[in-house]
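Pilot study result, target chain (361 residues):
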Amino acid sequence: MAGTVLLSAGGTGGHLFPAQALAQELAARGWRIHLATDPRAERFVSQFPAEQVHIIKSATFTGKSPLALGRTFARLAAGYLSARRVISAIRPDVAVGFGGYPTVPPLLAAAHKKVPTILHEQNAIMGRANRFLASRVKAIATGFELANKDSFSSAPVTVTGNPLREIAHKAARLAYDPPVAGGPFNLVVFGGSQGARFFSQCIPEALFRLSGDKKKRLNVTMQARPEDAEGVRAKMATLRIAATVEDFFADMPNRIAGAHLVICRSGASSVSELALIGRPGILVPLPGALDDDQGANAAVLEAVGGGVLVRQKDLTPERLAELLNAALEDPQSLANKAQCAKKAGVPDAAARLADMVEAYA
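Predicted structure:
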């Protein structure tokens, strides 16, 4: 059975990419796709297979003053009314939310208009917006086993995995090729907009502590903020390390596939791509998050032997140099971690979630 599905996601890649992967799977099955999101999504939606993109007003609770709360509720109320009009116009058979506060108005409106509703939570800890919606939906799908699933809802929870972009699936076809003694060693480092600055400071200092022979082996691909990139390039040149440093890599899954070791934040998509592609990682959760969702994500991969979780406060240049020395000297350990990571991947996550959507439609 094919019909119309309304997908709703916050306007960041972390929420939109899994929604896009599901949209591609459902479109291939004959479904008509509509997307509800916020203005931040503009840079991503050109590749989204939707008949129409609906920009819905929303807001995040960022202040506790009566004025700030009033503004937030006003925007959410306006978004809710707008979402009701969209739902009346397109008459979806099912609505699926992917997290972020922009999903709240569309999912609430869908539930109130008796449209079957499903949530997908990408992280191992359910986020606040999804927790708010959890008691109002028919079912919940997750990227990982949830650490807090008993605290928010009686709706059935199914682990489907995180749907990933086609570029990641193509990259996953490349088998891991362990480094050879004395040979090139490909290191990939990325951290997103909130993580790149820490890595821009820590990575060069750690590489400085490696021996000259080990520096010569390195080929570094590294994400840095635009304002930091030139400084990182200069440090790499001083260290005589071959490095490609940019603020954004559109083909990051391909870069991961070519890596012997990855150092990164542990957002849901990053951990899921590491597992799907099968590469060993040093996972550094973003500090300061209210629910430590990235810590929970990293713990999943560490538990199966696919990576190492290191808190940012513990990742001194000295500690990172120790980890890099161990990796450079023990290719078999890297190969074992790559194999364990690969076993944790869920290549059919989009199909599993699409099956779930069709079951509830």
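One observation from the pilot: The chain has 14 helices and 13 strands. A full batch analysis is planned for the follow-on phase.
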